[in-house]
Amino acid sequence: MATVAAEARVFLEVRRRLQSALLILGDSKEGGLPMAVSVTPSSLRMQSPGGCTELRLPAGVRLAPSSCRGLQHVPGDGLHLRLHARAECRPELISVFNQSSQAQECCTFYCQSCGEVVIRDRMLLRVLPLPGDNWGALVDEWCCHPNPFANKPLHPQENDCFTGDCFYLVNLKSDLWQPRPEGAPVETHHPSSENHPKLTPKANTKVICKRCKVMLGETVSSETTKFYMTEIIILPSERNFPIIPRSQFVQSIIAQCMVELSSARSTFRFTIQGHDDKVYILLWLLNSDSLVIESLGQSTSIQKFPVLEDVLKADASSAWNAVKVLYQPCIKSRNAELSSLWENDISVHSLTLPSTTCLELLLILSKSNATLPPSLRCMNSFQGPWSTRHNWSAGFVSPFCLVR
Description:
elongated
């Protein structure tokens, strides 16, 4: 039992791997009468002379009330306490490409922003991942003969789709609608998940949606186009285009990319850069096993989680599977020195997106950060391996999207 102000804000983060939870009961901005708070395995109950409010936990989430420890009042936040918690294993993360299709299936490519058909009824016979970073150097290291792939860019054939970290390579030779840039691109080196063909800065290689004028990708050669995963939805042709909030889709793709790359390559630091080669955000992945439940106290049943307004309906009762990150904005020459250090660090992975999407992601992170309790919004004077102190902001993004 504890006593807090009426209409307290509730924030609960459950860590699946650690089997622990952080519960924050925020102070009411308007003060109010004292309230008695009780924790049960499946709910939080707050009772005051004015009434009783109960927050029921999602199915599969259980707290251990007897394990409550570390009770303290943090100015600006409210009451903090930690306790043991159990949560069912989250759904398996589906590969980013599997938001779309499987090989041997007839697919349609849509602009995610407006639903315009980009490629209609394309039969994909092969869906292949591009090799990782420095694959050419590995071939040189392991082969006793000259590199057979030297100066041979990897381009998909007519019914192929190559997947990189956050883009698709597709052959548009046979399509009636082929976006043609004003200038001809010039290839300079081989593609991979990071090393795809570079284009001359003066060439206009953007692929633009006919309807909403959003940048969908870039041309790589006369027949090959690179589409960014954050701009395109690929679905079996018999399925209808799903309407998904833009912010939900963007954070889902980025979160899945980070989780997959951290698992496959043991990298946890990322630079988000635009197609103009400018770095917009530095991201540090902290964990991907969080369940977040947040609510503002009401006089009746709690119905809305503010952080999740794009993910959940007003009457939703499920938890939000979240990826926790630290981030630094790099726009307007902010954090230029740190950005330069990260760019030259081989342990940092770069993700390239359209510049407007980089700004969208920064806005998503800022909104997420603003909804967190004040004590969780930043990591003050974080000491990094570069021996320079920086104030990092924290945020959550969801790795799950409605497209399956």
